[in-house]
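Entry for the shared binder. Reason: the reviewer on the internal report wants the predicted structure included alongside the sequence.
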Amino acid sequence: MPTNLPQLPRWALSHGRAADDADAAFAAGIALNCLDNLVRTAPAWAGCWRARQAYGLSVDSEARHS
């Protein structure tokens, strides 16, 4: 398991609420990129995390079609 996990750059850390929608979208994009970088390191728990996501999406899909 890698010990040097990717982290958000200091300049991207939240200092309170976003000033507007563009700032919020920018911060969300940074967070998603960091999450993508983490998952691409193939940690041992990645399979379990993907299965949990798939299960959650299937539950949501079933609820919408019921």
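Summary line for the report: The CA atoms of residues 39 and 45 lie 9 Å apart.
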